[in-house]
Amino acid sequence: MGLKEKVLTKSMFVFHLSSGSCNNCDIELLDCLTPRYDLERFGVVLVGSIRHADALLCTGSANRQCMPRIKKIYEQMPKPGFVIAWGACGSSRGLFKDSYNTTEPLDEIIPVDVYIPGCPPKPEAILAGIKKLIDRINSKSKE
Amino acid sequence: MTYMAKALEYAFLYLIFPGFLFSSAMGLLIGWIDRKVTARIQWRVGPPWYQNFIDVLKLLLYKETLVPEGVSKTFFLGMPAVAMASATLVSTIILVINAIPQKGFIGDLIVLVYLLAMPSIALMLGAFASQNPLASLGASREMKLMLSYELPFILSLVVPIMKSGYSIRLGDILIKQANNGSLIGSPSGAISFFVMLLCIQAKLGFVPFDISEAETEIMAGAYIEYSGKALGIFKLAKAIMTFAVPIFLITLYFGGIKFSPVGFIKTILQFILILVLMIVIKNTNPRVRIDQALKFFWGPVALLAVLSVALAYLGY
Fold first, then answer.
1. What's domain A3-138's architecture?
2. Which of A16, B151, B169, B283, by CA, is between 20 and 30 Å from B198?
3. B61 is a domain residue
């Protein structure tokens, strides 16, 4: 593991984007920062601006209103940047699969690196998802 | 040839020790102490000690630097460099004068006051240059905050000047304290130190006064459009300031850095005392509004500063 991978995996600034979620996933995200789970141990910090972010964390079903905005925000992120699809809706549109308002899942709008399933995902699932993202960054750099 | 040697000496002082390299390493370490103590207060574990080094390395080496469309590149990317250059100069001047009190020049205290204001001004100009509405909101808040804390800051700075026989050389203040005991022991010095502690809280943008970068309401405010190297340099400048400003306070009120073994441990303890006081203030207070900050600094804090100046005038 070189310096680049170490630096990218140990210091993840996360920007949280809610593309029409029911707020459950957003509340679970805040649980990860509480004393019980404390994601700051691994260098994960929530940032306010997409320009500071390394990872775009997308909750919700990516409805038609949000689609162009998701694209725009993805383009505003400085690269290398990663995308995390959060929850059942973020990963696969969940129970809104047949809705007129969600015509495309998130991973057909922007490239998604990691899926964290669950409705909402438990904090343990989130920790496992971050481990998946670290493995993904390491394997990407080997290619 | 002597000019050459002189230039090399100054370059070494400015760039390596005690300038850029040393101060930024110390500043990042202090940033970790801040995060760790905050985490322990909130009953969390907190990040490992190298966390801030990794954050800055990532921003400086591996992230893309984006410049918004239609923005003056020189201004937008030049301002972080201005902030870092002046922060480095502050820490170099303070540390060199602490080691060799005769090395200062007449009026170096005034120069330091201006240099300490430079990082905030650079941040303001950079934010206005970025043309983002939230950034200009943050910059205008920063400007109002500066107007409010500079008054008590300069008023309380008058006390060390009066106590050292109206000298505006940092070296004279140090020598006077070495002969007569440190300033914190006198009533006027203690009050003025307390005022100064509140002012540097605002100067460093720590929590009750982090109005200009409130990430929950105006999304990092003045920093919003900065990314990659520019953001990393701003972070380094802030780290250097968090190292240099407590040292400035130690120089003014505790008689400077002592270089004997016992004295050096004492200095470190004083530094940690100031730092932990700032962190505790930071963690036990919610963010104030800009008008509350102005009222606070121009009301009770400025009155306290005037009181300390009056006490110093009467000789207490």
1. 3-Layer(aba) Sandwich (3.40)
2. B169
3. yes
Residue-range definition of the domain harbouring residue B215: 51-314
Strands A45-46 and A13-18 come out as parallel
The pLDDT score that the predictor gives to residue B306 is 92
State pLDDT tens for residues B144-178.
Answer: 888 899 999 999 989 888 888 888 888 888 888 88
- B186-245 confidence digits (pLDDT tens): 888 889 999 999 998 888 888 788 777 776 667 777 888 888 888 899 889 999 999 999
Q: Please check whether residue B25 lies inside any domain of the structure.
A: no
Residue B42 burial by Cβ neighbours in a 10 Å radius (0-12, 13-18, 19+): middle
Q: Is B217 on the interface with A (CB under 8 A)?
A: no
Structurally, chain B folds into a number of domains equal to 1
Q: What is the pLDDT of residues B111-153, one digit of tens each?
A: 999 999 999 899 888 888 888 888 888 888 888 888 899 999 9
For residue B21, being part of any structural domain is answered with no
Cβ-Cβ contacts under 8 Å for A132 (sequence gap 6 or more): A114
A10 touches chain B (CB under 8 A): yes
The residues spanned by each domain of chain A are 3-138
Q: Looking at chain B, which residue has its C-alpha nearest residue A10?
A: B54
Q: A71-106 burial, b for 16+ CB within 10 Å, e for fewer?
A: eebbebbbeebbbbbbbbbbbbbbebeeeeebeebb
Contacts of A76 in chain B (CB under 8 A): 66
| Residues 53-92, chain A, touching B (beta carbon < 8 A) | 54, 76, 78-80
Interface check A47 vs B, CB under 8 A: yes
Query: What integer is the mean pLDDT of B75-102?
Result: 89
Q: B191 lies in a domain?
A: yes
Q: For residue B55, list chain A residues with Cβ-Cβ distance below 8 A.
A: 11, 13, 43
Contact call for A51 and B44, based on CB within 8 A: no
Contact yes or no for B64 and A52 at CB 8 A: no
- Model ipTM value: 0.84
Pairwise CB contact (< 8 Å): A76 & B66 = yes
- pLDDT at position A143 is 63
The mean pLDDT of A110-126, rounded to a whole number, is: 87
